[in-house]
From TrEMBL, chain A:
Keyword Membrane attached: yes
Annotated keywords: Cell membrane, Membrane, Sugar transport, Transmembrane, Transmembrane helix, Transport
Domain (ABC transmembrane type-1): residue spans on this chain: 68-286
Transmembrane segments: 12-30, 72-93, 105-125, 156-183, 204-223, 265-285
A UniProt-annotated Pfam family: BPD_transp_1
Claim: Cell membrane is one of the keywords in the record: yes
Coiled coil: none
InterPro entries: MetI-like, MetI-like_sf
Protein name in UniProt: Multiple sugar transport system permease protein
Chief location: membrane
Length: 293, 281
């Protein structure tokens, strides 16, 4: 068989995938770009060309800036908490204790719980009148009276972050655990014989094995956190007083609640651009990490 | 390894207990809420375990009496099964040949990166044109339309997972069959696909879980019992005027049951997929 025929055959085998991808991703993306330069409505008018108007309006508006900041805090705080707790949990699960295999198996539960069910569960836990969190904190004396965790701008975002963190840190833990199990035991033993302390053993023996997989987890989790929609929509719909309105919620409101397809599209593309910049920066970082170790 | 010191052993066991409680308590509470009577759930101080176990809500949600909460719930359960099932089958059908081609033909590898890159796209970047197109084709509020849209998520993901699976099957086996004069379809059908069965099963599970979990597109593109999926039905319950928190919790338990069972029983396959091919978002 010639190389030419093999390549042609490969393209033929890929054809169904490529056709579908162009139909459901490529074309909509291009159409979003076109719409972002028009004042189209979601239903009815096709809209006319308005140049960069949508972008100027969006970027200079306070809504966008505030949502960007909210998204930034949500992503930074939830992802860093998930990474730290996840690695600590993995280090624990790598120790020897009774019931280890059962606990390892349980770690899959929060990950497998559907996001919407998780959001609903925590919404019930945070309920201002009958929620379990209020009941627990009052019963053990850590809180004087019931609070509206999701109803006050001061605590809503933090409450969302806790719920997101509970669902996602086990994933980081499972990835880190798999990496830890790849650390050769004789290296750890040798470093102990050489008198390395706990910290330097972690820093110089264990961490190099963790760095690669953790970077990948960090990238994927950050991108996911930047796109966050489901958990916020179910728990607060962006409220109270727009204190949890992340970028995806803002796009949803603009394009679908207010039916302004044109400016919604421009907003969506700005979000896309931000995620892309983030991904490219991370990719460079991963290559650097891989080169260093 | 040398023996652990007693202090460390005690510390490790306490930490493990705390971790177990952190993981289990919220899930357990969801279940307890689902079997508690309404007075128990509204009591102050709160009853952490119901006086009498009340399973009636499971009956309510799984009954198909017309115009009941159960009818809407059962309909959304079937919609979720249909959409996730169709989307999974379609995703595998287009991803298997593509992933094999990329795995065996490095020259076309760059196209895989283009497909994977789309996985990063926020759904909001596609939502408006997809909405308009579905409206145009009459596929809004339709399980086929939603399954088609789910390919935007499932197809790149399964292709990525399958490609790394095919990579681990030695080419030499296929080359040997070529020497013996086997045709491509025979090689795939008789050699490669049976060897790839475990990774295909893993990919199918992931795809099904992703579709079962999906909320954003389902919220936008479905509006009533004809196509509404479980995630939207539960969000409706949680955000609506329903004051029976136990009923909301019961719906959550039922929706979580299939993925939780898949998670617990297919642990090994899922974790190898998580750590090698990719990570579910």
């Amino acid at each position: 068989m010639t190389n030419n025929w093999i390549t042609t055959r490969a393209w033929l085998l890929m054809l169904p995938l490529l056709v579908v991808m162009i139909a459901v991703i490529g074309w909509p993306l291009i159409d979003t770009i076109r719409l972002s330069f028009t004042d189209a409505k979601l239903v009815g008018t096709q809209g006319s060309f308005v140049g960069l108007d949508n972008y100027v309006k969006v970027l200079s508006g306070s809504n966008f800036q505030r949502s960007l900041l909210t998204t930034f805090w949500f992503a930074v705080l939830s992802v860093s908490a998930e990474m730290v707790i996840g690695v600590l949990a993995a280090l624990l699960l790598n120790q020897r204790f009774y019931g280890r295999s059962v606990l390892r198996a349980l770690m899959i539960l929060p990950w497998a719980l559907p996001t919407v069910v998780n959001a609903t569960l925590w919404r019930l836990i945070y309920n201002p009148e009958y929620g379990a969190l209020n009941a627990l904190l009052v019963q053990i004396g850590m809180l004087d009276s019931y609070r509206s965790w999701l109803g006050e701008p001061g605590t809503a975002l933090a409450s969302l972050i806790l719920a997101d963190c509970w669902k996602n840190f086990p994933l980081v833990a499972l990835i880190a655990l798999a990496a830890l199990q790849a650390v050769p035991r004789d290296i750890t033993a040798a470093s102990m014989v050489d008198g390395a302390g706990v910290w330097s053993r972690f820093r110089f023996v264990t961490l190099p094995y963790l760095a690669g997989p953790l970077m990948v987890a960090l990238v994927l989790r950050t991108i996911e956190a930047f796109k966050v929609f489901d958990i916020i929509w179910v728990m607060t719909r962006g409220g109270p007083a727009n204190s949890t309105r992340t970028l995806s919620i803002l796009v949803y409101q603009e394009a679908f609640s207010f039916q302004r397809a044109g400016s919604g599209a421009s907003l969506a593309l700005i979000v896309t651009l931000l995620v892309t910049v983030l991904a490219v920066a991370y990719a460079a970082l991963i290559r650097k990490t891989a080169g260093a170790s | 390894m040398e023996r652990q010191s007693l202090t460390l052993t005690i510390f490790v066991h306490i930490a493990a207990l705390v971790l177990a409680i952190v993981i289990l308590a919220p899930v357990a509470w969801l279940f307890v809420m689902s079997i508690s009577s309404t007075p128990d759930l509204l009591a102050k101080p709160l009853h952490w375990w119901p006086d009498t176990v009340d399973l009636s809500r499971y009956g309510v949600l799984l009954s198909s009496v017309a115009n009941s909460a159960g009818e809407a719930f059962v309909a959304s359960l079937f919609n979720s099964l249909k959409v996730a099932g169709m989307a999974t089958i379609a995703a595998l059908a287009i991803a298997v040949p593509a992933a094999w081609a990329v795995s065996r033909t490095p020259a076309v590898g760059w196209s895989l990166y283009a497909v994977i890159a789309t996985y990063m796209l926020p759904p909001v970047a596609l939502a408006v044109p997809l909405y308009m197109a579905l409206a145009w084709w009459g596929l809004l509020n339709n399980v086929f339309g939603l399954a088609l849209v789910y390919l935007t998520i499932l197809a790149p993901f399964t292709t990525w997972l399958l490609k790394s699976g095919f990579d681990s099957i030695p080419r030499e086996i296929e080359s040997a069959a070529v020497m013996d004069g086997a045709r491509l379809d025979q090689i795939l059908r008789l050699i490669t696909l049976p060897l790839a069965a475990p990774v295909m099963a893993t990919a199918a599970l992931f795809a099904f879980l992703l579709a079962w979990d999906e909320f954003f597109y389902a919220l936008l593109f479905t509006s009533d019992q004809r196509a509404k999926t479980l995630t939207v039905a539960i969000a409706d319950l949680a955000g609506g005027r329903v004051s029976d928190y136990g009923l909301i919790a019961t719906a959550g338990v039922l929706a979580a049951l299939p993925p939780l069972l898949i998670g617990l029983f297919m642990q090994r396959a899922l974790i190898s997929g998580l750590t090698s091919g990719g990570v579910k978002g």
